[in-house]
Amino acid sequence: MVLVQLRYNFRLYPDTAQREALARSFGCARVVFNDGLRLRQQAREAGEEYVSDGELSRRLITEAKSTPERVWLGEVSSAMLQQALADLNAAYRNFFASISGKRKGRKLALPRFRSRKDNRQAIRFTKNSRFKVLDNGRLRLPKIGDLAVRWSRALPSDPSSVAVIKDAAGRYFASFVVQAAEEEVLPPVGSEVGIDLGLTHFAVLSDGTKVTAPKFLRRAARKLKRLQQDLSRKINGSNRRKKAVVQVARAHARVADTRRDWQHKLSTTLIRENQAVYVEDLCVVGLGRTRLAKSVHDAGWAGFTGMLEYKAARYGRTFGRVDRFFPSTRMCSDCGRINDKMALNVRAWDCPCGSDHDRDVNAARNIKAAGQADFNDRGAQVRPGLVPAPRGEAVTHPDAACSTRSVEGISVH
Ligand SMILES: [Zn+2]
C-alpha cells in the first residue's frame, strides 16, 4: 500500500489570550531560528567547524533558558522550539545538497534571517510536542490552549504534525500533515444514482431526492448581491467606495468558501452511498451563453462534478458523464417514448403509458439508465483511468470545443 502525505488546511479562531500566546510562540521560534543561523555564520566566518544539530539545540534552547537574556523561552513549548531548529537544519541540509549537486532543481541559497515583519508567521508541532485534536473539535496546542477550528471536512487519520500559520491579513490557519493510503477503496455498495443538475434545485437524484442549496448559502448569496448593488452606487475614488470594495471581496470569499464546503459534503455522501454516479455532460460553456448563465454559474456545477470525479477515482467508484444527445427531460423513463417539448415552467407531466413524472426526477432516471448503458457494461466502455489530481481542487473547465449540440436536450424557451 502506497502512503502519501496529504495536507489539510483549516481556519483557526484563537481568542485574545490564545492570540497573545501564539504571538509569543511565533516570536520565540523566530529568535531560536535566528540565533542558530547567527551561530553557524559566526563559526563559519571564524573558520570553525559546522555547529552540529545537537549542539545547536543544547546551546540555544536548553542552556539559553537559564540565561537572563533568553529566560522567556521557557514560556513556550520546547518541542515547538526544537522544531524551529529542525527547520533550520533542514534548510542547511537542502543548501548543502544543492551546492554538491545531490539535490536536483534550482540552486538553493543559505537560510535567511526571519523577521517579525514577514508576511507569514509559522510554527510547527510534531507528534512528540503533544498537540492533540480533542473530542470537542478543538485543537490543543502546548502552552497556547484549546483553539477553535472550523472543520470543513474530516481528517482521514491521525495527523503527524500541524503547522500554525498567521497570514498577512491576520488570519490563522492550521495545516495538518496526514499519512493516507493513496487509494482508499470503499467497500462496494449496491446502489447507483443519476443526477440531474437542475435550475429549480441544485440537484435532483434518480431516487427522487431533491437537493436544494442550504438556506445559509442562499442568504449569504443574497447579502453579496445587496453589497454589490451598494457598491455600484458609490462614487468612484471615494473612501466609502474603497470600504465597500473590501466588503464585497470579503462577502464573495465567504460565499465561495461556504459553497465549496457544502459541495464537499454532498459529493462525499453521494460517492459513499453509491457504487456509480452519473451526471449529464452539461457543457456549461454552451449553457453559459444563454440567459441562464447567472444561475448556472452561481450553482457551481463544474466544481461540483469535478469533486465527484476525483472522489470516485480515489474511493474506487464509477463516475460517468452522460452525453445529452437524448432529450432526457421529455423521454419517459418507464416506456422510452419521447414526448413533446415542454416549457421550463412545466414541472410535472403524464406520459400516455400511464406514468406520472416529476420533470427533474424523470431526467435523473434517464441519466442513470444512459450512464449504466455507457459505463457499466462490465468494463466494455469504462473510460481509461485519467485520475484528476485531488489536491488544489481547481474548478474543472468544461471543454471549450463543446458544441451546442450537447445542450439540445435542455429546452430553453
Ligand atoms: Zn411512458
Automatic annotation (TrEMBL):
Domain Probable transposase IS891/IS1136/IS1341 positions: 176-287
GO molecular function: DNA binding; metal ion binding
Keyword DNA-binding among UniProt keywords: yes
Pfam families: Cas12f1-like_TNB, HTH_OrfB_IS605, OrfB_IS605
GO-annotated biological processes: DNA recombination; transposition
The entry's keywords: DNA recombination, DNA-binding, Metal-binding, Transposition, Zinc
Transposase putative helix-turn-helix domain location: 1-48
Domain Cas12f1-like TNB: 301-367
Similarity field: In the C-terminal section; belongs to the transposase 35 family.
Name used for this protein in its record: Transposase, IS605 OrfB family protein
Organism listed in the record: Actinoplanes friuliensis DSM 7358
